[in-house]
Inverse folding.
């Protein structure tokens, strides 16, 4: 079957099997920032944004995404022009091994797009689907709060 997706702002067509998961399609097409962790929907390392909402690519059939807009971590920012979340995660030391970071950044972006001035509890809820084995989430929460302030022009 053929599907059409907008991935990171670029319209693309794919010939796929109906059973293909979105994660497998993205990785097959070179979007390697979307990680494969548990393949069971527990860790959040495969998080991407679909029409601005975080979803788990390992559980989502690519065929169900026909006509949707998908953002992977490759679409968040560039080396020359990083997103404030990316800058703050680095500056605050919130990257550790980095495996969970793409999913966390996209979950945080989705939340900040809806609420540019979140309380700490809201940040925690936004990140609660992203499992990090290296940290206690303190630095990720600080980085998200700091990025929100920068995006609002506070700091």
């Amino acid at each position: 079957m053929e599907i059409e997706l907008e991935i990171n702002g670029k319209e693309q067509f794919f010939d796929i099997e109906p059973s293909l998961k979105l994660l497998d399609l993205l990785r097959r097409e070179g979007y390697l920032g979307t990680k494969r962790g548990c393949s069971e929907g527990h860790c959040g390392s495969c998080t991407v944004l679909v029409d601005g909402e975080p979803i788990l690519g390992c559980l989502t059939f690519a065929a169900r995404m026909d006509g949707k807009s998908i953002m992977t971590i490759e679409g968040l920012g560039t080396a020359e022009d990083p997103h404030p979340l990316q800058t703050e995660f680095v500056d605050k030391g919130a990257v550790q091994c980095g495996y969970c970071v793409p999913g966390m950044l996209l979950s945080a972006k989705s939340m900040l797009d809806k609420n540019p001035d979140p309380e700490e509890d809201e940040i925690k809820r936004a990140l609660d689907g992203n499992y990090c084995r290296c940290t206690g989430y303190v630095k990720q929460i600080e980085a998200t709060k700091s990025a929100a302030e920068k995006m609002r022009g506070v700091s």
User: Anything to note?
Assistant: The longest strand covers residues 2-7. DSSP finds five helices and five strands in the chain. Helices lie at 22-28, 84-91, 101-114, 120-127, 138-152.
